[in-house]
Amino acid sequence: MSKFFRFLLPLAFAAIFMSCDSESKYIYPPDGVVNRITDFYFFNDGKSFMYLSSNMNRRYDFGELVLMEIDDEGDLVYKNSLLVPSIAGKMTVSAEEKDVFVTTRDKHGVVRAKIAGKSGSYRLQYEEGTKGDYPDILKTKKEPYALILSDDESKLLVTHLLNGELSVIDNEEWKVIKTSKLKYGVTEIIYDRNSGYYLASHRSSGNISLIEAKDNLEEFSVSVKQLPIDLPTKGFDVRSIKQSGDGKVFYAVFQNIYNEDTYEYAYDEDTAPQIVTFKIEDKELKIVKTLTVAGNLGEMAVLPYSSEREEKKTEETSDDDTAEIETRAADDSDAAEETEEETSQRIGDMIFVSVPKEEKVIVIDSARNSIRDEISYKDDKKDCYPYQLYAKSTGNATGYLFVSCFQNDRAYLYSIDLMSEEVIKKIGVLE
Questions:
Q1: pLDDT reading at 9 higher than 60
Q2: pLDDT per position as a tens digit, 389-406
Q3: 112 in helix, strand or coil?
Q4: 3-state percent helix, strand, coil for the chain, nearest multiple of 5
Q5: 177-212, pLDDT tens digit by residue?
Q6: pTM of this prediction?
Q7: How far is CA 178 from CA 111, 162, 167, 169, 221, in A?
Q8: Is the dihedral of CA 426, 406, 29, 93 positive or negative?
Q9: Exposed, middle or buried, 262 (CB in 10 Å: 0-12/13-18/19+)?
Q10: How far apart are alpha carbons 183 and 290 in whole angstroms?
Q11: Three-state SS string across 123-169, please?
C-alpha cells in the first residue's frame, strides 16, 4: 500500500466516525414534554386536546406536538406525540379534526400530520413513507407563524413574523401558489364568515390588514387593504385579535407605544394598554368601544356565553340559577332578539387577557365592558408569567381555558362554568 493511501485511510475512518457521531448527537425531547408551549387545541369530544411545545429555548433539536386526554377521574393523561421541526410557531386543525398543520419558524416552512382514530383513541401520525423524524418541510418565506385554513379548506394561509408576508398553500398539490405583502410582523390571522374577509393583526403598525383571498377563473388572487386604528396612541403592538361569539364585532389587544431603539414600552395616561372592540363596515374599521387596562398585555381568548330560552329554563333550571346570567342579558344592549327557532339568547363574551409581568390573567365581560375577575399566580409557589391563551366553548355558559406560562414551561387547564359558584376551576397542570 502506498504512503498516499496509508495517509488517506485514517482520514476516511475519521470522516465516517464523525458523520455517525454527529447523527447520534440529536437531543430528542421526552414524550409529552412541556417546553415553551405556544398553542393549544381542544377536540369536539370534550376530553381530548393537543398542545404545541415550540422548543423556543432550543433545549432539544425538535419541537413536539402532544396529544392528551382528560380521563374519567379528571386526570390529564398522555396519549401520544409527534416530533415537529424546531422552532414551532402555531398550529391549525381541519374542521373534521383529521389534519393538523404546524409552522416552523426556525426551518421556515410548514409540516402537516394526520389525526387518526376516534374519540378516546386518537393518534397523531405522519403519512406512511415518511423518512426521518418528520416529513419534508414545505418551504415558505422566513419565520412563518400564524396560519389558518380557507373556508373550504383547499388552501392554507400562512403569515410571517419577520417581513409580514402572506403565503398561500394549495393543500392538494401541497405547494406555495401565492405570496403577498402585508404589514410587518403578523401576530394573528382570523376569518370573518360574515364578510368573507381575513383579518390580520401586527406588531407596531397601528393597522389591521383586511385580506380578500379567493379563487378566480385563472388563479388564486389576494388583495390587501390596511385599516388604520384611530386611537390616541402610536406605534401599536397588537398581540391578539379575536371575533365575538355572534360574529358581529372583533376584539383586539393593544400594548403600549413601543420604542424600537430602546426595546422598551412607554407608560403614561395617553398610551395605556387597551382592549378594543371594533367592527368592519364597507371595508372600514369602526371602533365600537375601548377598555383601558393596566400592564403589558399578551394574548387573548374569547368564550361566548348565552342564556337558555324561556321554555328550557322552566323545565331544567330554577329562577335563582339563572338570575346572574339574566342580569347580564338586561345590561347588554347588543343582545340578540330571540326567535322561536333559537335555543339560546346571545348575551356576550368572556374575554381572557394575559398580563405576564403582573402574573395574572384578567377576565373581561364584554356585555359590561369591564373587568369581572382575574386569575392570579402571584401566590403560587412556582413562578408563572402567563402569555398564550386558548378557550373552547362546551355549552351556553361552560367551556375550557388553557393558560401557558411560556417561559416557565408550565400550562394550566381550567373549566369555566358561569352558572357555578366556582366560575373558574383548575383541572390540572402540564409541566
A1: no
A2: 999 999 999 999 999 999
A3: strand
A4: 10, 50, 40
A5: 999 998 888 889 999 988 899 999 987 667 899 999
A6: 0.85
A7: 18, 18, 6, 7, 8
A8: positive
A9: exposed
A10: 24
A11: EEECCCCCCCCCCCCEECCCCEEEEEECCCCCEEEEEECCCCEEEEE
